[in-house]
Design a protein that fits this description.
Blueprint lengths: L1 H29 L3 H29 L6 H23 L1
């Protein structure tokens, strides 16, 4: 059960990061600052990290290795909270 929750949170994190990238791409056309460019690259790297994490965690589960589930649930939950806050302050 926790495995499904962790994978769901990871999927949400990927989607939130894609939305952030879209906002930063829109902003870079208007603002053209190093900060916006830096946030765009950060979000892109974060997207790669989340996608790889999703893939490798799913691979571990398929092999029957599930001892990391609780740890991943806590880490990915707080990551999602951070992304939601970043998305909230960036959206404006």
């Amino acid at each position: 059960m926790f495995d499904t929750i962790v994978l769901g949170i990871m999927g949400v994190n990927v989607l939130l990061t894609i939305v952030l990238i879209g906002i930063y791409m829109r902003n870079i056309k208007v603002i053209k600052s190093k900060m916006t460019l830096g946030m765009l690259f950060f979000a892109a790297a974060f997207l790669v990290e989340n996608a790889l994490s999703f893939y490798f965690y799913n691979s571990l589960l398929m092999q029957g290795i599930d001892f990391v589930t609780t740890f991943n649930l806590v880490v990915k939950f707080f990551e999602m909270i951070g992304l939601l806050v970043l998305l909230y302050v960036t959206w404006d």
